[in-house]
Specification:
This protein is α/β, with parallel strands linked by helices and about 280 residues long. The protein contains 10 helices and 11 strands. The protein is elongated and about 70 Å long. The structure holds nicotinamide-adenine-dinucleotide (NAD).
């Protein structure tokens, strides 16, 4: 395998792939020389002072020294490389994945797959036209919480999930990915349903039911119940840990907050009326 982008996430992936006995690391590529040389002592002091936790330890022990490249196109020409792992910044994913597939390599590419729909379509088309395997590092998608919700939400768990804007152009459910802390009080995703709001992270979810109000004439049996669900940190089939691979903030949002601190928004939480139904496919 060859690795393109061996910063924070790329180094985690390097460590995880190295745990597989059938993986041999033959090439590394990064444009930042200290990362490419795997030498933490050469990392800029200011960067270490500001963002030490994002700077990889770089203490891997390679069976044989990988070939180092500072141009990913050169790595793709390397005949010893069967597959590449791409963990460069977001705007590189499309072009590097497409070039890699065209160079005959299988690909693991980090999320977000792409930044635009056009790029995404091109990536899919290039992949389909090849016989290469392309996997996207959307580890949250494989998480038990989201797999459970992908079945339950379309089945009506919080009623109809809604768009907030009549234009249909802006989708009101919000997604916040990876390592930036919490966007919402209870997690990283908020879905507004006609029967309640749901807040989820990969650690669990919380449902804030709609209440009877001035304009809602809910019948008692139509109301849904408050619900909390949490999962413990779990070992994934690839030997990694769901928390570690997600590069998430240190504490679990459910575990870190006493139940009491959740109470105020529960009292006021009223779901938005349905304007447009959002179709969620698992
Ligand atoms: N799945 C997850 O849980 C998860 C977690 C964190 C980050 N990510 C994703 O991983 C990607 C990288 O994030 P990060 O936090 O590791 O950033 P980072 O800045 O630590 O690492 C990116 C690396 O890519 C290198 N790079 C930039 N342009 C390059 C190029 N053209 N060729 C080769 N190397 C190049 C940089 O020098 C840097 O070392 C992002 O797209 C991010 O969204 C995913």
């Amino acid at each position: 395998m060859g690795f393109i982008g061996i910063g924070s996430r790329g180094s985690q992936l390097l460590e995880l792939f190295m745990q597989n006995k059938d993986v041999e690391i033959v090439a590394l590529c990064d444009i930042y020389e200290p990362y490419l040389q795997r030498d933490r002592s050469k990392v800029d002091a200011r960067y270490l002072a500001d963002r030490a936790s994002s700077v990889p330890m770089m203490d891997e022990k390679f069976a044989t020294k990988p070939t180092l490249y500072n141009d990913y196109r050169k790595l793709l020409e390397d005949k010893n490389v069967d597959a590449v792992c791409i963990a460069t910044p977001d705007h590189w994913h499309a072009i590097q994945m497409i070039d890699a597939v065209k160079a005959g390599k299988d690909v693991y590419v980090e999320k977000p797959l792409t930044q635009t729909i056009k790029e995404g379509r091109t990536m899919v088309n290039v992949c389909k036209a090849s016989n290469r395997v392309v996997a996207v590092g959307l580890n949250r998608r494989g998480n038990d919480v989201y797999r459970k919700l992908a079945k339950e939400i379309p089945a009506g768990k919080i009623g109809q999930v809604t768009y907030e804007f009549a234009s249909k152009k802006i989708i009101s459910f919000s997604i916040f990915e990876a390592s930036g802390g919490e966007l919402f009080p209870y997690g990283e995703i908020e879905l507004r349903g006609t029967k309640g709001n749901l807040y989820a992270s990969q650690d669990g979810y919380k449902i804030v039911p709609s209440k009877k109000g001035q304009f809602q004439n809910w019948k008692e049996k139509e109301l849904i119940k408050a619900e909390e669900f949490s999962i413990p940190s779990q070992d994934l089939k690839d030997g990694s840990n769901s928390f570690a691979t997600a590069n998430r903030s240190a504490t679990s949002w459910i575990a870190s907050k006493p139940a009491k601190s959740h109470s105020a928004p529960w009292k006021t939480g009223i779901a938005q009326p349905a304007l447009h139904t959002l179709q969620i496919s698992p």
